[in-house]
UniProtKB/TrEMBL annotation:
Domain of life: Bacteria
Name the record gives this protein: Fur family transcriptional regulator
InterPro entries: FUR (IPR002481), WH-like_DNA-bd_sf (IPR036388), WH_DNA-bd_sf (IPR036390)
Source species of the chain: Acetobacter fabarum
GO molecular function: DNA-binding transcription factor activity
Length: 172
């Protein structure tokens, strides 16, 4: 049990955002989809933080995001600054946000542009060395998600395969 149990705060939930405040649902949904593609689990805190980031605007500091969230919340409270900073760091690490540092050493956050470079994926026949281009978006999504879980980004992928008995290799 915590020493100061009466000070423990419950996590904020989406229905605590004041009506008419918060970012557009479609913009938040696009960011949520980007987060899920990169393997980030979407919690209520992260959803509310995405609203605050979009509402605060580009080139904003963590404190400005916290103040924006505080104004947005009808009931309850804004998340703690520590929780906000930990999640901002996660979003920066995964490429959702961009962090710029000013001359006075303040961190400013903006939504990072979506990286949608096509991933070159090739099957290589183990017997002949023949390369077969594969355009399968579901495999690309899976590879990106697995790589992101390990803090990596996939640039290209080559999978060595062998034909099954009596089958020829075809392009995807």
């Amino acid at each position: 049990m915590l020493a100061f149990f009466e000070h423990r705060r419950s996590p904020p939930v989406l229905n605590q955002i004041r009506p008419g405040m918060g970012a557009s649902c479609s913009a938040v949904r696009r960011l949520e989809e980007r987060c899920e593609e990169l393997g980030i689990k979407m919690t209520d805190l992260r959803r509310i933080l995405l609203h605050g980031i979009l509402e605060a605007g580009p080139q904003t500091t963590a404190v400005e995001i916290w103040k924006t969230l505080d104004r947005m919340m009808a009931y309850g409270h804004a998340p703690s600054q520590g929780s906000i900073q930990r999640n901002l760091n996660l979003f920066v690490d995964r490429g959702i946000l961009r962090r710029d540092v000013t001359a006075d050493r303040q961190w400013h956050y903006s939504i990072a542009p979506e990286r949608r470079a096509t991933l070159a994926m090739t099957f290589v026949d183990a017997g002949t060395g023949q390369k077969i281009a594969c355009n399968a978006p579901e495999i690309v999504t899976l590879l990106r998600r697995v790589a992101a879980e390990h803090g990596l980004a996939v640039q290209t992928a080559a999978i060595t395969v062998a034909p099954s008995a009596g089958q020829e290799l075809d392009a995807c």
